[in-house]
Amino acid sequence: MKVKVDERGYYGNFGGAYIPEMLYPNMEELRDNYERIMQSEDFQEEFQSLLKDFVGRPTPLYFAKRLSQKYGAKVYLKREDLCHTGAHKVNNTIGQILMAQRLGKKKIIAETGAGQHGVATATVCALMGVECIVYMGAVDMERQKPNVERMRILGAEVRAAESGSKTLKDATNEAMRHWINNPTDTHYIIGSVVGPHPYPEMVARFQSVISEEIRKQLLSHEGTEKPNYVVACVGGGSNAAGAFFHYYDDEDVQLVAVEAAGLGNDSGESAATTVLGKPGVLHGSKTLLMQTEDGQVVEPYSISAGLDYPGIGPVHAHLFETGRAQFYSATDEEAMQAGIELSRLEGIIPAIETAHAFAALDRMTFKPNDIVVINLSGRGDKDLETYIKWGKY
Amino acid sequence: MNRIEQLFNRKSERVLNVYFTAGYPTLNDTVSIMQSLEASGADLIEIGIPFSDPIADGPTIQESNGIALDNGMTLKLLLEQLEGVREKVNIPIILMGYINPIVQYGIEAFCQKCEEVGVDGLILPDLPMFEYLEVYKPLFEKHGLLNIFLITPQTSESRIREIDENSNGFIYMVSSASTTGAKTGISQDQEAYFSRIKEMNLKNPTLIGFGISNKETFDKACENANGAIIGSAFIKAISQEGEVANNINEFIQSVKG
User: Fold this and answer.
1) How many CB atoms lie within 10 A of CB B237?
2) Is the pLDDT of residue A63 over 80?
3) ipTM of the complex
């Protein structure tokens, strides 16, 4: 099966560019130029050099010995938590700031949920000396305080989104409104594989450095480029898209995506889009979407600020519809336990978002020689308060 | 002939189109607001279908959408409320809404119902042109619905031509790069944009929207186009204390002068 975007930005039935006319010139400019810019030698040189020396790539592919013993398989962790700024998000923001510069844009806006994308955006803006405004849900600002402070220290302005559930969806709405009001000199750095074409594809390609490295590193560790499973958590789905990218066509590699089930998928407090959603249009693309019968977007819930998004990227909706990827969902409880388990077994405190991916291991059955790669998308420093409250430490 | 076309055949100047959100301020105001608008001298009515995530709208309309949804407004209910409206209201009716609620209702069923109740046109700001041409246009035509596209100061000349070719009824000229209700007053840059469009001699009439809030801005818009659209300022007017019908009449009179 080929997982490929068509010229209109569709992955099968999902994708496209459902945008008001006010955003059309921006999207047209990006659509007409991103491919050329991305492939230019000068862009690639600067991008690769920053990934290496600023981000710290390649990130290790670490054999997790105690986790392997517990699950009876060879478990490897792709250490995106070791990227500068603490998550995979920076792979994309480095790419997009270079894109913005080449498009002649002077200002940057971004949305953020857990704050990791906001920090990564604030970081690259500081690096390039560009003005940066980050929209963040008021609720998320409260539960991810360390990241709000990091963004401010880096010189970014953090603006609270006070509409709706005051989380990621609303931050995205506010960022889009800002862009509509400032169309000519501003670039919007979207943090996940969502939004109108070409964002989902562009972000996935910046993140595809993850699966590119996994292939090489696994070859030297195991003598094969192909694991049996690649596992990643999914909110919008950028870390999953990055980990899956170079495996789309290897059908013997099982792709496993893990969504946030919040208090449980029947509880009314969940963010598991493939379980609760149906096709719809939000934030510029047609995808699976949690919504009422009348087409109003349902407020999602998860303990993790990065996964409580009511949709998923169109590529993930396509992977789900075609059965190319398996989708699981993990509750708050399961994710928190998995996060603590990883801390105790391997000495790595993961971001709560990432912990959801680990929670899926319990649902899976492995053969002893199975190779499992989990994308350890981010570190848990920002989540200490939530861990402390949850575990009563 | 469609009522919008009839209107522009009859009247090519100072056409006043007024937007309000269905289900706001209270759930069952829809038809009575329309009656008051017609009685007060509005030429066109644009009814907003409330949506949870109206990204092209500023705070005023966004808030009215939220309140309308809290009041229990749905697209299904709106279309039910409009049953029989043609016995009470004669001026053209346009529904404006984001695409998702319409997709969920079912596009064919939606078009059919619009025709039944007497809707004349649609403004769907996030519907892409090629989707419109391939999927929606035949359905709109079958049910006598005109499709109104938006243009902005950033829209290229070639795209304006394309939009003019594929629009009917009128073209919605967004006055500045903004969400609704974001700006008031009209700047020199905007005037330059208005005259640029005027010189293009488009086949469709044009109505200027966004930032039109009172007599002064309405007059200015009418110097540059066939008329104007008022949204946020009208929502504010009907949000005030006092009887809604009186507020509507006072507001419309103050704008038309």
Assistant:
1) 21
2) yes
3) 0.94
Contact (CB<8Å) B177/A296: no
pTM of the model: 0.96
pLDDT tens per residue across span B120-138: 999 999 999 989 999 999 9
Please tell me if residue A31 touches chain B, with a CB cutoff of 8 Å. no
Report in angstroms the alpha-carbon separations of A278 from A14, B35, B64. 11, 38, 26
Q: How far apart are CA A47 and CA A38, in angstroms?
A: 9
Give the one of A25, A280, A289 whose C-beta lies nearest to B154's C-beta: A25
Q: Is A377 annotated in the active site?
A: yes
Convert the pLDDT of each residue in B14-44 to its tens digit.
999 999 999 999 999 999 999 999 999 999 9
**Rounded to a whole number, what is the distance in angstroms from the first to the last CA of chain B?**
30
Chain B, window 35-54: residues with a beta carbon less than 8 angstroms from a chain A beta carbon: 51-53
pLDDT per residue over A207-261, tens digit each? 999 999 999 999 999 999 999 999 999 999 999 999 999 999 999 999 999 999 9
Instruction: Centre a 10 Å sphere on the Cβ of residue B182 and count the other Cβ atoms it contains.
Output: 18
Q: Name B191's Cβ contacts closer than 8 Å, sequence gap at least 6.
A: B224
Q: Please tell me the distance in Å from B194's CA to the nearest CA on chain A.
A: 16
CB within 8 A of A82, min separation 6: which ones? A56, A59, A60, A379
The total of other beta-carbon atoms located within 10 Å of residue A77's CB is 24
DSSP-derived letter for residue A381 is: G
Give yes or no for a contact between A237 and A273, defined as CB atoms under 8 angstroms apart: no
Mean pLDDT of B208-235: 95
Cα dihedral A177, A183, A187, A189, rounded to 10, equals 20
Contact B104 A182 (CB under 8 A): no
Give the length of chain B.
257
DSSP B132: I
User: Chain B within 8 Å of A167 (Cβ-Cβ)?
Assistant: no
Is residue A2 classed as helix, strand or coil in its secondary structure? coil
Give me chain A's average pLDDT, please. Answer: 96
pLDDT per residue as tens digits for the range B185-218: 778 888 899 999 999 999 999 999 999 999 999 9
The partner residues of A132 in beta bridges, in order of sequence, read A108
Q: Degrees (nearest 5) of the Cα angle A329, A134, A112?
A: 5
**Which run of H or of E encompasses A272?**
none
Q: Where are the beta strands (DSSP E) in A235-316?
A: 254-262, 278-282, 285-289
Where are the alpha helices (H) located in chain B, listed in sequence order?
Answer: 3-10, 30-40, 59-71, 75-81, 99-105, 107-117, 129-131, 137-142, 157-166, 188-199, 215-224, 232-239, 244-256
Q: How many CB pairs under 8 A join A and B?
A: 104
Asked if pLDDT for residue B75 goes beyond 80, the answer is: yes
Question: Which among A8, A18, A31, A111 is the top mutation candidate for probing chain B, defined by the most B β-carbons within 10 Å of its own β-carbon?
Answer: A18
Whether the predicted pLDDT of B12 surpasses 80: yes
